[in-house]
Each structure stands twice: as C-alpha cells, then as structure tokens.
C-alpha cells in the first residue's frame, strides 16, 4: 500500500511540475482525467494479465466514457506518464510506454492493420508526443525523442530526435546533453516538405539562369531567316 501511495505521489508531482495551471496535488488527483485514466488502466491491466479479460475491458471502457481516453488493458505503461488534457487519446493493446513520457490530446499509438502479434509502437523513456500526432506500427521511438503536433510517424525514431511532418521526418538530432521532455517547442520547427520544395525552386531558378547564359539573342530577323533557310 505504501509503495502504491509513493507511486501515486510521484505521478501527481509529475503533473504539478509539467502543468503550470496545476495548483495542488489534491486538485490534480480529483479533477485531472489523465490521472484517472492511468489509475483505471492499472486496474484494467492487472485484470488483463490475470486473464479476467471481460472485466478488464469493462474497466477500460468505463475509463474511456469517464475521461475520453481509451487505453487497451493490454498496453504497458511506465511510471509518471503525464496526459495533458487527454481527450481523444488512443493507446493500442501491444503499445508500450516508458517512464516520464508526456502525451497531449488526440494522440494515437495505433497499428497499420498489416502486422500480427506486436502491432503497436513502443515509446522509450522521456518521450514527448504533441497534440494530434499519430504513431502507427510496431517500432520504437527512442528515449528523449519528441514527436511534433500533427505528425504521422510510420517508422522508428532514434533516441534524442525530433520528428515532424506527414509522413514524419527527423529534423533534429540532439548532440547536446539529454533535454527533459518539458522543453516543448512545437512552433519553431520547420516543415521539411516545404523546405525541400523551396530548395527545388531555388535549384530551378539557378538552372534557368545558366540556360539564359547559353542563349544568343537574335536582333536582326532577316539574319535569323537566312540562318534558318
């Protein structure tokens, strides 16, 4: 019992540290749907592991109705998972989430429909997933990585990376000491697709200038006609 209370205390402290709107642990415990979803999931997962599958799904569906967060009882969740707002989050059966992760509303940890067995992604420790991001498939997002809002991730992301876009591409690899997942910057990251289009436009302009250099302008049309004949 004491161990569970310690874990609950550390979870509430994680919310308090990451959410500037949180005023007290009591408020977080009573009013934050992310906390309720995780607590319900602990019970549902225990039932799932002990093969009480129907009861496990009953608990998870009740939690979905109560919180707007759908976590399959089979999913494995580490410590101090913070779910900010949380509405519309879906976490699949074989998904795994490490310690100290942060998920925003609308996140999906789902499958592609093509895989058997392990079908859903694995998040390492200290991973941040921005609002509306979709991570689909049985691969891993490495420790300390960040998935930008609205990204669709279809392949593995190495540790300490930032992935952006649809489909997601890695736009930043941190060579510095590991940053904490609270260091959120989802607005100053460029769109890699637009950057490539801009690079192509620049290249086309350069090629056109080179072509113009090889073109000899014809000033005398009679001379031009003689040349053609």
What strand order characterises the main sheet? 3-6-9-12-14-15
* CATH fold-level label of the domain at 75-189: UDP N-Acetylglucosamine Acyltransferase, domain 1
Order of helices and strands: HHHHEEEEEEEEEEEEEEEHH
Structural class: alpha/beta
The N- to C-terminal Cα distance equals 100 Å
Task: Give the overall shape.
Answer: elongated
SS field, number of helical segments: 6
Q: Give the quaternary arrangement of the chains.
A: single chain
- How much strand content do the residues show? 15-25%
Summarize the structure.
The chain has helices spanning 2-18, 25-31, 33-49, 53-67, 192-214, 221-228; strands spanning 70-71, 76-77, 82-83, 90-91, 96-97, 102-103, 108-110, 122-123, 128-129, 134-136, 140-141, 146-147, 152-153, 161-164, 169-173. It is α/β, with parallel strands linked by helices.
List keywords for this structure.
alpha/beta; 16% strand; 229 residues; UDP N-Acetylglucosamine Acyltransferase, domain 1; 6-stranded mixed beta sheet; 38% helix
Describe the protein's topology.
Elements: H1 2-18, H2 25-31, H3 33-49, H4 53-67, E1 70-71, E2 76-77, E3 82-83, E4 90-91, E5 96-97, E6 102-103, E7 108-110, E8 122-123, E9 128-129, E10 134-136, E11 140-141, E12 146-147, E13 152-153, E14 161-164, E15 169-173, H5 192-214, H6 221-228
Parallel strand pairs: 1-4, 2-5, 3-6, 4-7, 5-8, 6-9, 7-10, 8-11, 9-12, 10-13, 12-14
Antiparallel strand pairs: 14-15
Helix pairs in contact: 3-4
